[in-house]
Amino acid sequence: MKQIRLNAFDMNCVGHIHQGLWRHPRDRSTQYTDLAHWVDLARTLERGLFDGLFLADVLGVYDVYQGGPDAAVRAAVQVPVGDPLLLVPAMAAATTHLGFGVTANLSYEPPYTFARRMSTLDHLTGGRVGWNIVTGYLDSAARALGLDGQAAHDDRYAMAEEYMDVVYRLWEGSWADDAVRRDRAAGVYADPARVRAIRHHGPHFRTEGAHLCEPSPQRTPVLYQAGSSDRGRRFAAAHAECVFVNGGPKPHVARLVADLRGLARSLGRDPADLKVFVGATVVVAETDALAQAKRADYERYASVEGALAHASASLGIDFAAQDWDDPIRAGQSQAVTSNIENQAARRPDKVLTRRGLVEGLSLGGRQVPIVGGPATVADELMAWVEEADVDGFILARTVTPECFTDVIDLVVPELQRRGAYKTAYTPGTLREKLSAPGDRSGGSPRGPRLPDTHPGASRRWRP
Ligand SMILES: Cc1cc2nc3c(=O)[nH]c(=O)nc-3n(C[C@H](O)[C@H](O)[C@H](O)COP(=O)(O)O)c2cc1C
Fold first, then answer.
1. Which residues have CB under 6 Å of ligand 1?
2. Ligand 1 atom index nearest CA of 136
3. Domain boundaries of the chain, sorted by first residue
4. What is the pLDDT of residues 368-399, one digit of tens each?
5. I want to staple 76 with a disulfide (CB 3.0 to 4.6 A). Which of 14, 128, 374, 428 is the partner?
6. Residues in domain Luciferase-like (predicted)?
7. Residue 319: beta bridge partners?
8. How far apart are CA 440 and CA 410, in angstroms?
9. pLDDT of the residue at 337
10. How crowded is residue 452: how many other Cβ atoms within 10 Å of its Cβ?
11. What CATH architecture is 5-459?
12. Is 439 left (phi over 0), alpha (psi -120 to 50) or beta?
């Protein structure tokens, strides 16, 4: 039976996916500035044998709704937001196996400095770090960083292709495997003949220099990607090792997944090397009735205004300026176009409108929650894996940390009883865990490095 993989989806902020729930008396998301909050979360997730903690990030504020940031600031919609990378070392020190998928936007940082930060994290975590490759979707970020506005949707992917080539060369090709000698007697730490500068002069980036870090366990961090427009899927099929897709009707997601795996195969990759995780929100309690009551309790704290501020920015459309019944189309947006396609797929019989969007909100967000007792939730998670060919889930936080402890205490044992969830971690780096032989989801066991069929592998050191 295919093993279900679980990841937590969180962000270094108060309001992440489900807006308003920070007001719930048991919610602890306002403690996001305390390191102990994150260390506790990491320990909790490792107790539940989660593969990873996936940390979202965004640069810029959500100022599309009502033409300004007030609604987002009032409701703490992904602002204030701290740097996700800085949380990782403390959480890594408190855990042994948990992986960390960290979002970093490549539009505003040169590949040379970014490559060093990720290699540093790969060393400090013992090879447990991943990178969610994003290019941003907010004009407010571009303006804050001195530009007039962000590049167009497909141009951002073209820039990302070039960026990947530079970081692959830094991570994979600048230091030979045997460059570091640590020879105390000879006084040679590293052999200068085995360290070389990379030279890149492209339309977006110029770099001349050797990578500043010695080879880390995974070299290239595990690569995540979350764009699923046509252009986004082509990028993911080429580069991603883990793809994060939004929920929606299972047949819609199944088509996305089949397309992704087919594209990967056409590029010479093993489609099973592409792990696909679907974004999900779970509300679970001891029985179906108690879970429904918990959901109703959470719902009382949901913020519709916060959800609209979030949706306006990520879909790139000001819903305050949009008539209730005006159609919403992907062509209007330079933001996350696949989010619009995803919303539309949920109600194929209807034209997507502001009214439809608001009616579809749940728990202050656009994800339709899976609500029930342990057996009901396990049935649904297993149906997703079966019908949509996904490898697992990225579980959004609702009321934290109980949204994660509930899954760990109630759903994980149920899945384990059914043989659908591991009972122990496999040793090794995050990449090795994702391709562990005990994982019957397919793919061949891999080492800590990128598989030979991955484009980054072609950038490895050659004499
Ligand atoms: C489920 C999901 C999660 C995402 N998380 C982030 C994020 O944390 N930060 C970010 O800047 N972009 C994020 N994005 C945006 C994507 O990385 C991508 O830039 C965007 O979806 C535009 O590409 P697309 O139209 O191909 O989907 C996310 C997108 C999706 C669908």
1. 56-58, 103, 105, 134-137, 226-229, 231-232, 244, 246, 279, 336-339
2. 11
3. 5-459
4. 999 999 999 999 999 999 999 999 999 999 99
5. 14
6. 24-386
7. none
8. 23
9. 60
10. 10
11. Alpha-Beta Barrel (3.20)
12. beta
